Amino acid sequence: MPNKMDKQRIDQIITFSLLESNRKDDPWDRELGPIHLIKYVYLSDLAYAEHHHGITYTGTPWRFHHYGPWAEEVYERIDLVMQAVEAKVKAISSPKLRDDFFRYSLDDDERYYELYSALPLEITSALKKAIHTYGNDTAELLHYVYRTRPMICAAPGESLIFESKKLVEEEIITESQIPKEELSVKRKRLKKEAIDKLKEEMAVRLEKTLTKKKEKRQFTPPRYDDVYYEGVMRVESLAGDPIETEEGVLEVTPNLWKSSFRTDDELC
What we know:
Blueprint: H1 7-21, H2 34-49, E1 63-65, E2 68-70, H3 72-85, E3 88-92, E4 101-105, H4 109-118, H5 121-134, H6 138-146, H7 149-152, H8 165-177, H9 180-214, H10 226-238
Antiparallel strand pairs: 1-2, 3-4
């Protein structure tokens, strides 16, 4: 069920994403570009929809575009938000690109905690996990969002649907079997259980992160002796003759997007 787009919520997520990225250990991984911010808004809507029967938090009309989920409405908010929060902007030139591309950063602890309290827990949890996993690694972030359910269930150019067929069927069965006065109580209980589960998962992930930081990585360099080189030659010989380089055009039938190779009937 589509809901009305809320620009203020989009701005909040964009700002929080920048602030969360600034808390990463690696200073080179703290700056985000427009493509990263757009994907993090998408992941926020996805996380929220999973706990609210397919209804997204921002109401953004997402669609399947060249580089994954895209919404012009979110892209247009980025410059406005950067100016409003006075973010640092870095323009990067490249001889391979006709236009400059930009990276943004923001450091404001007070605003961070305000937004952390204002945004739903499912969104802040999802953003913290995604940003600390992918940061500004465009390739890995795109690979991840391409494998999310709304993308798998759509073809290029189509609008993205956040409520799966399976969830709709389960909701119809549940509501038809439970009296209305009991349904609201059950929803409250399920919501509380979901929040408690998220808190437990965040505590476990935080403990793992702290443990990894304490562990010292030891690197043992390989021993480049005759045994090593003989082993490499043996492995390479098993591969057979070298593959010759060829050029051509690969055509993909449009039917592939909705085939069983990409979709799962239980999800779409």
